Amino acid sequence: MARSSHTVEAVVQAVHRQAGTCFPSQVTLLALWQPEGDWLWELFEDDRRYTQRLPYYPEGIIENVLHGEAMSIPDIFAYLDAHPVRVRRLLDVNEVILDVGARKEQPDPSARAMLFVPLEVRGARVGVLSIQSYEAGAFDDTDLEFLSLLAQQVSISLEHADIREELERLTRTDMLTGLPNRRAFYHDAPLALAAARREGKELRLIMLDVHEFKRINDGFGHQVGDAVLSTLGKVLRQTVLLPELAVRLGGDEFALLIWGMDEQLDQLIARLSQNLRAASWPSGLGPIRLHGGVAHPPLGENVDEWLSLADARMYHAKRQRLVGSPAIWGLDFGDGLR
């Protein structure tokens, strides 16, 4: 687990892999309490993984363990007779998770025996760890004690994973705009290129910059210039939704990775234009205008070549000196682009 503590998923996968050697179990569940007031469930069953955001129910078993003590349920169906509300909620949740996976058309084997232990990080309850077996009465008191000891190590690994993920997020994030940075782009763009070619999907790169940004910096000061970039970052985060990507490359230059055909591109441009008009820009600047250049991926997988092509089209658009609405797009759809 120490070696696997780079991400939460890796920690859960390591626990699941080892749980089968320590317990007669087929299912491993990690339920993590989220700041938004709901749960993130990471569930491994055999070699399959399911992830689901689920609501908080005061009567739920997971909630009962989070705020109380470790729990052993030898037979979920016998427990159902005594606690129908809590168990009904748990079984419904399992059905939701299983319906997401490839086994939707197959009958659910329904885990019968379950162990639950709370997890603490830095003295605070953060979640619940559970192992489950298809066989009723599969676990004894010794198993519950051992799982409680294992939960302490899981908590340490989760803390390490949280620190690692936060550091990774910081190294990939532009602090001014909150967008991914150039480092993130050079990591994600080759992966997107490979996926587009493997799956036969359309992928395009858009380069953007702010019209006459140097004039804004020189005339109004760098604080106003930073405010423009920060606001543009908010607009792009609002406009560009996963699996698409918006990054700040540096200065007033931004890049977007956009999936889909021309219709999807036109829709994105329309959303961006609308969101630019609706944004709260620093006073006295007048309309904030953008120039953009669009490029399909090059024949090879050279990301720099791709950037250069989109960049050249952006500067071609800039030389046209287009004027008009608050969101001006000079998109050079040259030969071979569409």
TrEMBL record:
Tell me which residues make up the GGDEF domain. Answer: 201-333
Gene Ontology molecular-function annotations: diguanylate cyclase activity
Q: Which residues cross the membrane?
A: none
What's the domain of life for this entry?
A: Bacteria
- Mind telling me which Pfam families this protein's record contains? GAF, GGDEF
Question: What InterPro entries has UniProt attached to this entry?
Answer: Diguanylate_Cyclase (IPR050469), GAF (IPR003018), GAF-like_dom_sf (IPR029016), GGDEF_dom (IPR000160), Nucleotide_cyclase (IPR029787), Rev_trsase/Diguanyl_cyclase (IPR043128)
Q: Which residues form a coiled coil?
A: none
Signal peptide (residue range): none
Q: Which NCBIfam families match?
A: GGDEF
What PANTHER family does the annotation carry?
DIGUANYLATE CYCLASE DGCM-RELATED, REGULATORY COMPONENTS OF SENSORY TRANSDUCTION SYSTEM
Q: What is this protein called?
A: Diguanylate cyclase/phosphodiesterase (GGDEF & EAL domains) with PAS/PAC sensor(S)
What's the source species' lineage? Bacteria, Thermotogati, Deinococcota, Deinococci, Deinococcales
